[in-house]
Amino acid sequence: MRISRLFAALLVSLVPTALARSSTGDKVLVVMEPTLKAEDYSLFFNNLRSRGYEVFFRAPNEKMPTTMSYDIPQFSHIIMFTPTAKNLEADVGPQALFTLLKENPSTNILVALSPKRTPMSDFAAEFNIGLPPPNTPLISHFPPRSSPHTQLIINSPSKAHPLLSKNLPPVLFEGQAHLLGDNPLLFPILNAPVESFSTDGTEDRRADSVVEASDKGGEGLWAGSKMSVVSGFQATNGARIAFVGGVKLFSDEFAKAEVAPGKRSGNGQLAQDIAAWTFQETLVYKVDSATHFLEGDETRTEQEKYTTNDRVTFTMEISQFDPIKNKYIPKSDIQELQLEFTMLDPHIRTGLQAVADKPGTYSVTFRAPDRHGVFKFVVNHKRKGITPLQVAMPVAVVPPRHDGYPRFLSAAWPYYIGAISTSVGFIFFCIVYLGAESATERKRKEKGKNKVE
Amino acid sequence: MKPSSALYPLVLALASVCSAKLSFKSGSAVVNAKDGSPSQSLKFDPSQGTKPLRVAQDETLKLQFTVFDDAEKRDVQPHQTFLRFYDEKTDEEGIVPIKVGRDGKARFSMNLRKPPVGLPPTTFDPLHVSLILGSFRHEGAVYDLFDLSLPPSASTPPHPEESSFHVQPEIAHTFRPDQKSPPKFISLVFAGLVLSPWAVLLGLLRYLPISLQPDTKTLPFLACLASFEGLLFWYWVDLYLGQVLMYGAALGLATAIAGKRALSSFN
After folding, report:
1. What is the pLDDT of residue A24?
2. B178: exposed, middle or buried (Cβ count in 10 Å: 0-12, 13-18, 19+)
3. What percent of chain A has pLDDT over 90?
4. Does the beta-carbon distance from A207 to B139 stay under 8 Å?
5. CA-to-CA distance for A213 and A153, rounded, in angstroms?
6. Which of A201, A433, B8, B187 could form a disulfide with A413 if both were Cys (CB 3.0 to 4.6 A apart)?
7. Is residue B258 within 8 angstroms of chain A, CB to CB?
8. Would you say residue B9 has pLDDT above 50?
9. One GO CC annotation, please (chain A) (predicted)?
10. What residue in B sits closest to A226 (Cα-Cα)?
11. Inter-axis angle of helices A413-452 and B219-237, nearest 10
């Protein structure tokens, strides 16, 4: 009994406690500037390792390990913990990062920013992120606390993005906020508190400079909850980039701190959530298959062409990556999935409904328009922060063939009757003409016979 | 590595407890019309609920109050004196700083002809206006002042692709209406009309001395003619051109042979 229990305990200890894999790859490169020490972020990196990632470290001005070798990306994910580094080696500079994002499969990037202006600030600006003037960290005088006012406590938002865990405790933040442009690929993950603002002052005497700075910049005051401290960018090719306003959010110091007596901060959980989203673990969707066929077709053969006014069924299967099971699982609860039947402009746009007894299947039946031409079945489902789902299948819609029109119409009965009666009349006439001729012929023959006799 | 519990003891103040914090007194809001005469005026203090205030296009809003610290009981100049304009329905927020002198006197003036940059886009719904007082040395506080109704601003056009990230309106194709056919009764009446000459014919046939005697020589030919009509009827119902031409060729050959035989029987 004791031996088997020991054996079971041994087996359990061999299984990693929180195994979660990425859907695209396991190699992570961390570019860390010399002023930061990896030991200060050990909780974050150990958590990554326990989830199955291989973490490699390098400094910005080192050459190895490189991100690209002979034009092949070497890492699936890159973490840029270079908030104040001004000199970056070419293969981790903004140009190289852009090239990596556009590759197929693309590289995901997690960037830590800071109040200083660095090449990473220019990189962030390319994504429509507006940064406040340099050296103006985010401060908040609320809630009243004895720690520096540049260290903020941010409560989890009431309408949080699905990538954040539920019931996230308040998190500690130190760094700079940014404003997001209106590009819909960009979305906020965590917003700054309402009472926070960006300033370089540390005393009450500098109150006037706050007012003057807002007039000078022309952009107004960098304040309020419209600024965000953590934001994400979901590219259309599937690449993900996360921008965090301060690298200390990932530190062990903040992860172990208490925001209230007896309540630990949510930094550890938030760091995991950000990494999970950026490294393609959560909210990764995939179209498994998409097909179309005539409504009543049991064999479900895909047709090359449909006739106008045909009833056509379109069906597709979608699955979501489950990081714990490390495979794609059918997903049946996607809302508001829409199908467009397009020829230059959508002629039909309907919702795709989930099929009840087939997990992950969505289907709709509609009537093909009475315009002929080359149409496309288009599904282009995009939402902030999830992988876009795209399907485009061209198909021809042809007018009915010569025998595809309705026949034997009630309005044409007089014509049918007329034609048929003409045929019948002809046969009747032939019978009478040929039969009657025989009768007169016989009479003449008889007369001739009589005369002869 | 410092122990976590002793790191940064953070004290969260409970808002309901009336502790010593920044506050203001002699708060007044005046709305002046274009000619300078006051059209509305409002006195507000920290303990009051929010009141409505309306500013039209040509009017000026002037706010005045004095910031003081409850604990030290003197007028102070805080680090942060912001007016927050918030629209609940559209979730738009704007923050505008207020200039406060060393003596704690704050003055704010807003004319809609040149609105402050931080003002958010407005609609027909009122904006909640609150005052944020923050300081490094004193405990800060947030106070709700009044509900401000401003003329609606021109809406900013959204990003062209923004609509594709939300549900888009459904589009249904308007089909050509189905072909309508006249009532079947009318078709029947006219079909009867078409058949009416037969009635006349059958009536007049009584006066013709016709006696039919089926002749074995002409019967095959008549049968072939009848089957040609049948073939045409079959073509109308079911057959394709290729098939009918094939059958027609075979039948035509048979008809020619039968006809030749019938013709030879007359000679």
Report:
1. 84
2. exposed
3. 67
4. no
5. 25
6. B187
7. no
8. no
9. oligosaccharyltransferase complex
10. B93
11. 170
The two tokens of residue A146 are: 């004895």
**Fold of the CATH domain B16-149:** Immunoglobulin-like (2.60.40)
**CA atoms of A192 and A180, how far apart (whole Å):** 12
SS3 B196: helix
Which chain B residue lies closest to A443 (C-alpha atoms)? B211
Quickly state the pLDDT bin for B165 (edges 50, 70, 90).
very high
Chain centroid to Cα A267, Å, comes to 26
d(C-alpha B99, C-alpha B146), whole Å: 19
Q: Where are the domains of chain B?
A: 16-149, 215-267
Q: How far is A100 from chain B, CA to nearest CA, in Å?
A: 25
DSSP A410: G
pTM above 0.90, yes or no: no
Q: Which residue of A has its CA nearest to B96?
A: A221
What part of B 35-74 touches A (C-beta under 8 Å)? none
Residue A93 to residue A118: CA distance in whole angstroms: 11
Has residue A8 got a pLDDT over 70?
no
Is some CB atom of chain A closer than 8 A to the CB atom of B184? yes
What CATH number is given to the structural domain containing A375? Answer: 2.60.40.1930
Q: Do A197 and B80 touch (CB under 8 A)?
A: yes
Could you tell me the residue range of the domain that residue A325 belongs to? Answer: 285-398
Are both A182 and A258 inside the same structural domain? yes
CA distance linking residue A269 with residue A273, whole number of Å:
6
Q: How far apart are CA A33 and CA A88, in angstroms?
A: 9
Peptide bond into A65 cis (omega under 30): yes
Are A101 and A225 within one domain?
yes
Indicate the angle between helix axes B241-266 and A413-452, nearest 10 degrees: 20
Domain assignment of residue A154, yes or no: yes
Which of A261, A278, A295 lies at the terminal end of a domain, its last residue?
A: A278
* Strand ranges in B70-216 using DSSP code E only, listed in sequence order: 74-75, 80-87, 92-97, 99-100, 105-111, 127-134, 141-149
Q: Which of A255, A278, A301 is the last residue of a domain?
A: A278
Q: Do B93 and A225 touch (CB under 8 A)?
A: yes
Exposed (0-12), middle (13-18) or buried (19+): which is A30, by Cβ within 10 Å? buried
